[in-house]
């Protein structure tokens, strides 16, 4: 039956009014939502936005519509965002999630989980729909949890670190005695190796404690595991055996080496705690058929019941006594593994031990080994002002510089250095100074001397993780203690070459 023209004409305004009401309702719902909803063009231009002034970013729609969304994205996240836009924009109907920092109207930054969906082929949208949820507070809390977990790890590491340092000090004392009596070259080499090992331990300890930014690079997973094997062994009681098995040849992955060490450390400590009566822990690496690098930490301990395994990665969930753990270990491990693009699974059952299986993507190749630095012996002698408040260290550094042919003036702190320069006829060409000193600090001294001698080379030396007010430029470098005399000489030589090349 065909409707009469009168009925058709009366139905048009009714349909129109309903569409208007539905459109108003939809817009009101979008503006009331806790998520930010935007529609982007394929090139990232913001075509539509549903925001109010009281929303997290604080913009009015007219402030940002027509702009490219990359103007709102943190510069360090721009590459990640561009890659995500290209991937989702190339496949109709596809979607992906990415975490980005977005600039707020007041100049601050909001961390957002952004879900983008390609609706370019939808005639009603003709764009990429992005739903963004403010997770700033959650990210801040997660970082605090990570710091708490690092602190817990340091407590668990303490006995092993003390054990390792006592062994190192024993080596140094015995070797020093032998060297004094016989001048043995092997004894001196033992001292050097022990000092190098001690330096590695302190750097590792600082990396666990401090919430420093992730430093991801291509590393050899097998080599990294062997580097921490002795530390792992020192954490285990005598009735727990450790076996480390690695595949032959390099196993390159893109990861922060300290985080990989942290992952293995926590898994080994969990395995140890599951075997109060002793047993065996095996740590192995391998290459899977799906081109992934795999770490497996297995034990023959008590294992986990299904209910425990299902909650093992939840923050603060633990079956241990309060004194022995906060329940953050496995949560942090999974977080670090996922940051590398990897996964972690637990294969366990009550009474048959646990296998923790970590898989991360294999990188293309390890970076080529740089050629050894050219010898700085025979380089032009320089007039060096050495400022160090530890007398024994100052004496050894001065001796190393003089053996390399440099002329050295020594001072115990910045104030003494300035007093010496008032009486000293020679103009210093290079300053080697500790950063943290009483009266006048290293950076303060360097600024005063640079004002007098603009061509002055500066080497800042520090035993702290924080360089303070020290800076780096084409005539200044920061050298972290401990370092060898050859390393110091090489830095002075390198800065000298830069200065000569600029003339």
Structure description:
This protein has 503 residues and is α/β, with parallel strands linked by helices. The protein folds into 4 domains: 17-134, PAS domain (Beta-Lactamase); 140-212; 217-367, 2-Layer Sandwich (Heat Shock Protein 90), CATH 3.30.565.10; 383-501, Rossmann fold, CATH 3.40.50. Helix content is 43%, strand content 22%. It is built from 14 helices and 17 strands. It has helices at 5-32, 61-64, 78-89, 136-182, 185-209, 221-227, 229-234, 257-273, 306-311, 329-339, 391-403, 414-423, 442-452, 485-501, and strands spanning 36-40, 46-50, 95-103, 109-119, 127-134, 217-220, 240-245, 252-255, 279-287, 292-299, 343-348, 354-361, 383-387, 407-411, 430-434, 457-462, 476-480. The chain has a 5-stranded antiparallel sheet, sandwiched between helices. It is flat, with a radius of gyration of 31 Å. Mean pLDDT is 79; it is low at 1-12 and 370-378.
List keywords for this structure.
4 domains; five-stranded antiparallel β-sheet; Beta-Lactamase; 22% strand; Heat Shock Protein 90; 503 residues; five-stranded mixed β-sheet
